[in-house]
Amino acid sequence: MEDRILIADDEKTICSVLSQRLTREGYSCVTAHNGKEALTRFYQGNFSLVISDIRMPEVDGLELLKSVKAVRPTMMFILMTAFPEIDIAVEAIHLGVSDFLIKPFDLELAVFSVKKALEQKKMEEEIESYHKNLKRMVEERTVELQHAYRTLKKAYLDSVKVLAEAIDAKDPYLRGHSDRVRRMSLRIAVSLGFSEERMEILEYGSLLHDIGKIGIQDEILRKPGPLSPDEYQTIQEHPLIGVKIVEGIEFFKDKIPMIRNHHEHFNGEGYPDGLAGEGIPLEARIIAVPDAFDAMASLRPHRGTMALEDILLEMEKYKGKQFDPKLLEIFLQEKIYQS
Ligand SMILES: [Fe+2]
Questions:
Q1: Which protein residues have a CB closer than 5 Å to ligand 1 (ion)?
Q2: pTM for this one?
Q3: Rounded to the nearest whole angstrom, what is the distance from the C-alpha of residue 195 to the centroid of ligand 1?
Q4: Are 202 and 185 in contact (CB under 8 A)?
Q5: CB within 8 A of 323, min separation 6: which ones?
Q6: 196 CA to middle of ligand 1, Å?
Q7: Which DSSP state fits 106?
Q8: What does the buried/exposed string (b/e) look like for 154-168 if buried means 16 or more CB atoms within 10 Å of the residue's CB?
């Protein structure tokens, strides 16, 4: 589409000479003989450039420039004047004028000035559309990446759940144990106001806390009766076996404290490190509570099932000994064992 140029000057000769010359260059020109008329024409038409005299009756060139820029800040604007004054020039530059033509001017110079201004406009428009395009592409790509990330995370969680089921399957009396420990641990963490990021680490850590059981013989894990001291000692090796299995894998790095320390006791009498109180990583202290609850609630051939109130009384007995008292309190008060 050809560029439309609005020419405003109270000297009609200048208007028509300029208009004729620019029409020969392929532009479509509209003329106005004062500022007010120019403004009306400007609002009516879709122009690429305004060429205006400064001194005009009613609305002068600077006023016109101001009004045009208020509506279309990117509009190209060339001012013509027979009386170059520095303060007017400075004001016009501040208002965003593209060029000045000092009268009397060579028509070729005017053509050159027009072409330069329109080229600049085209370049500015291209840059703007490039930026818009880039922004849209970045937004689209971000949505795609977020979607891929969510899918990947879900797939990761699903495969970790399968792994957790495989761990639980080694002990038929603990079917679904890891997932229940995960659910209850997360509820305690909600009560503690964990961040989303910390919740996620806890989610994986609680699912995998017993991963070391993969390295314990099935006969010991599945033994229906009470364990001999030797067998009990073997079972106690599972946290460190778990660490050995996952260490060196970046993804598991922040889950190691849960795998290693979920059998520590608050009074320091647990294993494998004999840590006490807040020296035990918080996530491991959290897991310890539902882990013990779920183990007691599971059916054991040598002792049958325990009644819920007996389990809760038993846990209460170990408050501050095996369990972090604050966390046990949350577990009992909020009836997290029901989840
Ligand atoms: Fe364990």
A1: 210
A2: 0.64
A3: 25
A4: yes
A5: 266, 285, 288, 289, 292, 315
A6: 25
A7: -
A8: eeeeeebbeebeebb
Closest of 308, 333, 186 to residue 325, by C-alpha: 333
- Give the closest residue to 250 by CA, choosing from 328, 127, 323, 156: 156
Domain boundary among 64, 94, 128: 128
3-state secondary structure of 296: helix
User: In angstroms, what is the span from residue 292 Cα to ligand 1's centroid?
Assistant: 9
Rounded mean pLDDT of the chain? 93
**pLDDT score of 65 more than 80:** yes
pLDDT at 213: 93
Do 224 and 332 lie in one domain? The reply is yes
Residues 180, 285, single domain; the answer is: yes
Q: Which of 57-61, 100-104, 222-226, 275-279 has the lowest mean pLDDT?
A: 222-226
Cα 19 from Cα 287, distance rounded (Å): 84
Distance from residue 208's CA to the centre of ligand 1 (Å): 9
> What is the whole-number distance in angstroms between the Cα of residue 238 and the centre of ligand 1?
7
Asked if 272 contacts 301 with a C-beta cutoff of 8 angstroms, the reply is no
How far, in Å, are 79, 136, 308, 332 from residue 46 at the CA level? 19, 27, 81, 74
Residue 339 structure tokens: 């989840």
Q: How far is the CA of 333 from the centre of ligand 1 (A)?
A: 24
322 plus 186 within the same structural domain: yes
CATH label of the domain that carries residue 318: 1.10.3210.10
**Residue 210 alpha carbon to ligand 1 centre in Å:** 5
The pLDDT-based confidence of 222 (bands split at 50, 70, 90) is: confident
Asked if the structure places residue 147 within a domain, the reply is no
Phi and psi torsions of 49, nearest 5°: -155, 145
